Amino acid sequence: MRNAIFLGALSCSLLTGCLSGGKQETTSDSQPNIIFIMSDDHAYQAISAYGHDLNHTPNIDRLANEGVLFNKGFVTNSICAPSRAVMLTGKHSFVNGKVDNMLPFDWNQDNFAKQLQKVGYQTAMVGKIHLHGLPQGFDYSNVLPGQGQYYNPDFIENGEKKQYHGYCTQITTDIAMDWLDKKRDKDKPFLLLYHQKAPHRTWMPEKKYLDLFKDKTFTPPANFFDDYENRPVAAQHEMGIFEHMDLVYDLKMLDEQGDIQTRYRGAAQGMYERMDAAQKAAWDAHYKPIIADFKARGLEGKELALWKYDRYMKDYLSTIQSVDDGVGQLLDYLDENGLAENTIVVYTSDQGFYLGEHGWFDKRFMYEESFRTPLLMRYPKEIKAGTVTEKLIQNLDFAPTFLDYAGASIPEDIQGESFRKVVSGETDKWRDAIYYTYYEYPGEHNVQRHHGVRTDRYKLIHFYYDSDTWELYDLEKDPSEMNNVYDDPSYAQVRKEMHAKLVEVRAKYGDSDEMDQKHLQRFLKARNVKH
Description:
By secondary structure, this protein is of the alpha/beta class. The chain has helices spanning 2-16, 58-65, 80-89, 93-96, 112-118, 168-183, 241-244, 265-273, 277-297, 301-336, 368-371, 398-406, 420-424, 492-509, 513-527; strands at 33-39, 68-70, 73-74, 122-127, 140-143, 154-157, 160-163, 190-195, 343-349, 375-378, 387-389, 393-394, 434-438, 450-454, 458-463, 469-474. Strands 7-6-5-4-8-1-9-10-2-11 form a ten-stranded mixed beta sheet, with helices on both faces. A four-stranded antiparallel beta sheet has the order 13-14-15-16, covered by helices on one side. A hairpin with a 5-residue loop joins strand 15 (458-463) and strand 16. Helix 6 runs parallel beside helix 10 (301-336).
């Protein structure tokens, strides 16, 4: 009987498309569907396809196994809202105007979704976008306000705010799946932006994954206790796991007695109070023993630093497991409904993230762990399974690439380039350098303003505003960026060439010192800061 039920369900799925109301779609030789999956702060180190052995992400890994893995995917500005603005517009932050998390984003400007609408696509955005205002270019939107909440979150559906009960990652997946299955016009090609809040701070795991890493102790990176020798700007950070990670807000040490008082305890209490009784019961069953053990041990110094790192990793990686589940649901739907062959699926993050490297969490710096982002892509019609590319790809390139696949014209003012022919193997020609900017200073985490250029081997960074500091790294010899060789005489020629390359890329994209000052004044005015 059990086998009969299984075979019946399988036949229904494969032959009649049960999930889509009895209508199975077929592949098309025309415009491909596009599903763009973006998580928030997902480090490439935390995707098992990249080989770091921290966790297992079988569903995200499928995109690499069945498509292409990008080993050198990067962002142009490693902070949430600006990264998303670059993704939408195909233009650097200093061009689209969204240089930091605070200044407004102009939805009236062009974006690739608007262009896809013009060539017949039905478009939807679901989940986190972190850009204030009603999304433009989308026939349907259901997005989180601001950063969103992990438990019982609010969403804004086509401009109307409502609260959903449950866990944010699963809710976001459910909304995306509902649009795919029930709300879209199945006679049109579609674009779906499916964007998860997780694994953004404060890393609150789903109930089923609270104990996922209970029996594992994480070993920190080799440079966890970095002393920042010869890197004075890095030493000024406020993103250290030991020094700055909040015991209550970040690490869930919200004790009933109130013995652990921290700066963000009130915010942590507010997140806890969003939960219903059943959610609180599961949460307490997991965290109360951890809190009691922590209080009893009285950790200090190095032992406390290592304990905080381990707790951080357990929570952070647990939230990613729910993200991976959602990717699996979506890929299964495509398979079951005859959509896999003609659907482009991209998985990325709005930037990378530090998982203890240099002793840090968060992002912002141009150092590799936050500058580099995971990027995996599947399109069976054009991309050979198991492809790996070392080309320097940036989030600047998504807009023109999607327009290229859709057969739409690419506006001349888009600054990115289509990597379609690169991943299909049609060409090996590509850029030899990428450009980075960061503006949000003075601000959270105290990362100074800087810009820089990266080639395959070298990286040049210029910190400005409070300092005039240069750093140069040989990424082949020093992949962890521990040795600033800017003043090393043996790198004099490399330094000269990298300075010339920086001038070249700034001119190419239209950036300048005058542009830096313009955005600095906007920033200071918005915050009423004098300098």
